[in-house]
Amino acid sequence: MSQKKVVIVGGGHNGLVCAAYLARAGFTVTVLERRELIGGACVTETLWPGYRVSRAAYVLSLLRPRIVKDLELTKHGLKLLPRVPSSITPLPDGRALVLGPDREQNAQEIRAFSAKDAERFGAYESLLERIADALEPTLDLPPPRFFPRRPRELRPWAAALRAGIKLGRHTPAAARILLGAARDLLEEWFDSEPLRSTLATDAVIGAFASPATPGTGYVLFHHVMGSITGSRGVWAYVEGGMGRLSDAIAAAAEAHGVTIRTDTNVATLRTRDGQVRGVALQDGTEIDADLVVSSIDPIRTCSILDNAEQLPDTFRRSVGALDMRSPVVKINLALDRLPDFRLRDRDQLSLSGTIHLGPTTLDEIEDAFQDAQLGQVSKKPVVEMTIPSVLDTTLAPEGRHVASIFAQYAPARAPNDPEWNSLRDQMRDNVLAVVEAAAPGFSSSILEIDVLAPPDLERIFGLTGGNIFHGAMTPDRLLFMRPLPDWANHRMPISGLYLCGSGTHPGGGVMGACGRNAALEILSDLR
């Protein structure tokens, strides 16, 4: 096994994690990254002199603790800055809803909008925590195979059974959350806005869906599942930006002998007689390999096969039909001062967490989504703004700040649609208008701006359709159906070719589980 040569296509965080685990096991591993820096969408870029920006991914919570421990990421430079409070919702009337890990404080905040909701919120969080505690072990295993063929393929089913036993009488509630619509769930639990709309943003972020869309309950749960900070649901900034996480994983991989090459564009996956043989680069160079592991999405992986006709017809059709629509526009900003929000229920706001702006009711989120369904940008977009320089002084010059805005909904249009230039500008203007309404003078504080619509996310980061999850995370595309039924265990129909990106179980977010689980499956095959 130690003689095996592995090429990993794409230096995103999952590809780096997979490389590190395979190298630990004795493989000779080379990572090939198209861009000039590693990390995929998990990068820090100096867009303007003195300003370091997490250009795509911008906060961390879902990273699996097992990976941090196994790869000794702290030793390799990973430092987390927990964000408390974690959620801030300023309202047009000057009130605000601020939530964090302190349950008594949360109840006090919510009581200003509904005494009943203040009493219910603790039970709601406890239910989500119970479900997360039960299901978390399944993230660190490949998905269960619907029809197990070998004894080791029973392990995921055993983990699922243990999760069900642990949930006990809460199993029906868990099933409803994981399979249903977030709107139904939130309206059942709570009466008041902006609590419902604030919670609903976790259900739609990155998804071309409204809170009323079946399956958004799982997306909501997915985003509150992480506990890398030690407190479930509390997200963190990575000191130095998200690229420092990728740097730490890369350093761990290189410590085990991995070779990482940037500015290296893989043009073709070379095959012969149904077996992968290596890759061909854009410059014509060929690299032989016993195994090739792709951390790019399934559609892009299939598109660079030297002969896609060797894939089964049903597989090719199903991959081509994957939902890669993206509603996301990412805006990066350099600011000369912090925003000054209108306030009447307190003297000031801590701006360490995610600032929710735009729609303040579920109906308004539905309206924003309806605009995108009609092919337009949202008139009042859903806006999540973070200002990491509040906690991390390494990101901007003294007295200045960097901000990330994650906004939706952008319409689902082809990347080459000529209207994107005007749509991008419309989205930028609508987003800034939303922030300006809550924090007058914000626009005048902007020194620099970087606007990335779905075509830009595809062009720069290689995300088909601009989809940050490598494909929709709907119930029909989870577990043993991600990315496709019968092809959910990281293997491709070509012998020796594997997937390790977010298009595989357990899905998107900066988690690393896809990379680690792929490595485990490869090791199992060779044993």
What does this protein look like?
- The protein has 527 residues and is an alpha/beta fold.
- Among the domains are: 5-42 and 61-79 and 241-323 and 472-526, FAD/NAD(P)-binding domain (3-Layer(bba) Sandwich), CATH 3.50.50.60; 122-227, no CATH class.
- It is 34% helix and 17% strand.
- It has helices at residues 13-24, 65-70, 103-111, 115-139, 155-167, 171-179, 182-189, 195-204, 216-223, 243-255, 298-303, 313-320, 362-373, 420-438, 454-461, 513-526; strands at 5-9, 28-32, 44-48, 51-54, 80-82, 87-90, 96-99, 236-238, 259-261, 266-272, 275-281, 286-288, 291-294, 329-335, 354-357, 382-386, 401-408, 446-452, 497-499.
- The chain has a 7-stranded mixed beta sheet, with helices on both faces. It has a 5-stranded parallel beta sheet with strand order 9-2-1-13-19, covered by helices on one side.
With strands numbered from the N-terminus, the spatial order across the biggest sheet is 7-6-15-16-17-14-18
Helical content stands at 25-40%
Name of the top-level CATH class of the domain at 5-42 and 61-79 and 241-323 and 472-526 = Alpha Beta
Largest sheet: 7 strands, mixed
Structural class: alpha/beta
Overall mean pLDDT: 93
Cα end-to-end separation: 8 Å
Question: What CATH architecture of the domain at 5-42 and 61-79 and 241-323 and 472-526 would you give?
Answer: 3-Layer(bba) Sandwich
What is this structure's SSE topology?
Blueprint: E1 5-9, H1 13-24, E2 28-32, E3 44-48, E4 51-54, H2 65-70, E5 80-82, E6 87-90, E7 96-99, H3 103-111, H4 115-139, H5 155-167, H6 171-179, H7 182-189, H8 195-204, H9 216-223, E8 236-238, H10 243-255, E9 259-261, E10 266-272, E11 275-281, E12 286-288, E13 291-294, H11 298-303, H12 313-320, E14 329-335, E15 354-357, H13 362-373, E16 382-386, E17 401-408, H14 420-438, E18 446-452, H15 454-461, E19 497-499, H16 513-526
Parallel strand pairs: 1-2, 1-13, 2-9, 6-15, 13-19
Antiparallel strand pairs: 3-4, 5-8, 6-7, 10-11, 11-12, 14-17, 14-18, 15-16, 16-17
Helix pairs in contact: 1-10, 1-16, 3-4, 4-5, 6-9, 7-8, 8-9
